[in-house]
Amino acid sequence: MKESNKIVMMLDDDHAILNSLEQLLTDRGYRVMPYDNAEDFFRGGLPDGPACLLLDNQLANGKTGVDVHQELQSRGWHLPTVFLTAHWNVSSVVAAMRAGADGFLAKPFEPADLLQAVDVALDHAVQHRQEQAKSNDARSRVASLTPREAEVVSMVVDGQLNKQIADELGLSLVTVKVHRGRAMSKLGAGNPAEMAKIASLGGLF
Amino acid sequence: MNQLRQMDQGRSANPGWEVARTVERLASERIAVLEAENAEMRKRIDRLEVALDAAGVGTWVWELGSKIPEWDFRMRMLYGLKEDEPPSIDAFLKRVHPLERKVAAHELEALAAGQADGEAGDVFQRDIRIMHPVLGERWISSIGKTERDDDGEICRLSGVNFDITDRKLAEEALHKSEEKYRRLQLLQSESRFLQLVEVAFEGIIVIDDGIILDANTRFAKMVGYDLSEILGSDAIHFVAPESRKLVGERIRNHDDRPCEFMALRKDGSVFPVLFNAKMREWDGHANWVIVLLDLSEIKRAKAKIAIQNEQLSQAMRLALASEISTGIVHQIGQPLTAMGVNLAVASGRFKACDMGSCNLKGALSRVEADIARMREVIRHLRVLATPMQREARLVAIGDVISDAIKQMRDEALAHGVSLVVDLKESLPVVWVDAVQMVQVFVNLIRNAIEVNVAGQQGNPSIRVRARELDGKMLEVSVRDRGTGLTPEVLNRLFSPYFSTKPGGMGIGLRLSQTIVHAHNGTLEGLNNTDGPGATFRVLLPIQSLEPDKN
Question: How far apart are CA B32 and CA B38, in angstroms?
Fold first, then answer.
């Protein structure tokens, strides 16, 4: 199965592990971005395309995986992360999960378990991207509405009938219908329910 | 005489007169001699009287037949006899001091009856205390002699008396002051003795035939009784039943050699004592002075040290076991992970390939490399996993530091790093586990060597210093001239598996810290404020007790 647009980023100071994982994932068709230190990792930046991160918890020069994860979150990166660690005790697991880890594996792990964790993380990435896309789309659509149209949409979503809207806005029934029709098409909705969803997603209310 | 001379001149021719004249002459010669003797006698008596006067000596004579002794006037004066009062035995006795009157009367009777007071010869002497009617209390010395008649019976007593009041008073004063002095000496020595006895750390008792005659407060405290309960009681009551046989035998056999036994308190509890005694036989009694030292504190302290030693050993064992197992988990875990993945890669490729175009070589050779790596790690860990001796060998820390320096000199030399040693001559005694502590210093020195080489600051050198800090702590420091510690490194200095060295296992400092902590000390690493590089300091408490060498 070719998944060449799916990216697995890796941050681990152990080269043996980095190498072996790179081989494994590349064989599986993922695009791999290996790093052995945090500076290079951040300098490299987020790739385009759905990506996840395999993160060792014990890194060189004093950083832990949790530190790195916090840092990327503060940069606003959305990167589902799987923690890999040689020591696992309750406190380190809790720390990782609290930090929002998508997964947690203790070394040595079954390669099959790793692949599964990667799949799950990448699914999240894909999902996220899709939702982002939807949200962006909705936003631009909402932005394209005129103020009048926006008003009408709000009231329709509220459950008001055209007549009521006409009365409240002091418009003719026809005008209301026209605004409503244009708004629906701009929002790309087929019915009021859809309209409500898209409007909400787009931040109308 | 004139008449005779006249007669002589008128009648010189008559023969009768010649005889008469001869007789006259003889008579007058005789009279002259007698007169001369008389005069002589008078002179002697006068001289005697003068002497007696000067000496204040009175003379007396008592014919035993009569009741009245003859007293000269000095005697009369000595006894204060009035002008018209005749001397008599009664008058004498009346003047004798009331307390001595009876004895004096009795003695006189005995004398009169011829019973001289047992002493050889007939001379007797007595000091008599009298009450002089005018002068009051006086002392008289009476010396006398008995005279016996032809039948050997005592017929007469005679003698002298003289006043010895001054002498007596002086004697008494001297006696009193001597007595006072003696008493004071006694009191002082008594009080010193009491002080000694009371401040003694030991309980002290004096027993006589098994009964406690005396005891000091400490003993009372030791056995939990009041002194009043102790004095007069049988000493065996304070011996625990289990020791009674031993102590009983000791007492019976008059064996006062030191021994240990269990003593018994009022509340029934027992405690160990060291017994030390001096036994004297005295009048058929066995009189003991016994000193008892409560050994419970000492035994407790010994036990505590033994426990502490055991705990130290235990702590070391646990610390090392923990370090080793963590080491295994990490250092083996990593290569195993890689190996697992490589094998998965290999097997995946193997499945997907057709013969001839399998690229398994890379994956498999990486597996081999990882196996080799694990072998190295195991070897390294094996060094750490040396089986612990049953008891940690404790030595003074000075020896340990010297040992570590000796071990590392060559390595320092090989890296061109000079090793400066600053060890005070007399380091306070700190007992440490030799095997483990030497590793700490070797580790610190090795780190310093490596950082110096890496830092490449001119004049790479390390200073190892040991010194006492205000009497409570011993500081051993290893100072390097490397690049110092960055904040990130400082933060994780003692974290396990944190290493700034390529290929470093990252457990050296962690392990060193664990060992130092097990000795109740601290290990810290700080950048130098007065020059390049960093200093690692080991602080250990100075112990005052030497551990049991069991």
Answer: 9
Cα separation, A18 vs B257, whole angstroms: 80
B505: Cα separation from own chain's centroid: 60
Contact: B338, A63; criterion CB under 8 Å: no
- Three-state secondary-structure class, residue A94: helix
Print pLDDT tens along chain A (205 aa): 445 689 999 999 888 889 999 999 998 899 999 998 888 999 998 998 899 999 988 776 667 888 889 889 899 888 999 998 876 667 777 877 887 888 888 787 888 889 999 999 999 999 999 998 989 999 999 899 899 888 888 888 888 888 998 998 888 999 999 999 999 998 888 888 888 888 888 888 7
Q: Which residues of A touch B349 (CB under 8 A)?
A: 27
Q: Which two tokens stand for residue A198?
A: 């898209």
Residues of chain A contacting residue B352, judged by C-beta atoms under 8 Å apart:
27
DSSP designation for B96? B
How far is the C-alpha of B248 from the C-alpha of B309, rounded, in Å? Answer: 38
Query: Is the CB of residue B533 less than 8 Å from the CB of residue B461?
Result: no
**Minimal CA–CA distance to B363: which of A17, A35, A23?**
A23
Chain B residues with CB within 8 Å of chain A CB:
326, 329-330, 333-345, 348-349, 352, 362-363, 366, 369-370, 373, 488-489, 491-492, 496-500
Would you call A1 an interface residue with chain B, using a CB distance cutoff of 8 Å?
no
Please give the biggest Cα pair distance in chain A.
74
Q: What is the dihedral of CA B26, B31, B36, B40, to 10 degrees?
A: 130
Contacts of residue A60 in chain B, CB cutoff 8 Å?
Answer: 499-500
Altogether, the residues listed in chain B come to a count of 550
Q: In what order do the strands lie in the sheet with A81-85?
A: A31-35, A7-11, A51-56, A81-85, A103-106
The edge-to-edge listing of strands for the beta sheet with B123-132 is B70-71, B57-63, B154-163, B136-148, B123-132
Entry field: residues in chain A: 205
**Residues of chain B with C-beta less than 8 angstroms from the C-beta of A63:** 488
Q: Which residues contact B482 (CB under 8 A, 6 or more apart)?
A: B448, B451, B452, B454, B455, B457, B532, B533, B534
The answer to whether B334 contacts A23, with C-beta atoms less than 8 Å apart, is no
Give CA B227 to chain center in angstroms: 23
| Dist CA B280 CA B287 (whole Å) | 5
Interface contact A116, partner B, CB < 8 A: no
Is A88 in CB contact (< 8 Å) with chain B? no
Each residue of B292-347: pLDDT tens digit? Answer: 998 888 888 888 888 877 777 777 777 777 777 776 777 787 888 888 888 888 88
Residue in chain B closest to A16 (alpha carbons) equals B338
Three-state SS letters, B162-200: EECHHHHHHHHHHHHHHHHHHHHHHHHHHHHHHHHHHHC
Chain B closest CA to A61's CA: distance in Å?
Answer: 6
A76 Cα to chain B: minimum distance (Å): 24
Answer yes or no: are the C-beta atoms of B140 and B56 closer than 8 Å: no
Write out pLDDT tens, residues B117-145: 444 457 888 888 999 888 888 999 999 88
CA A197, CA A182: separation in Å to the nearest integer? Answer: 17
Q: How far is A186 from chain B (nearest CA, A)?
A: 51
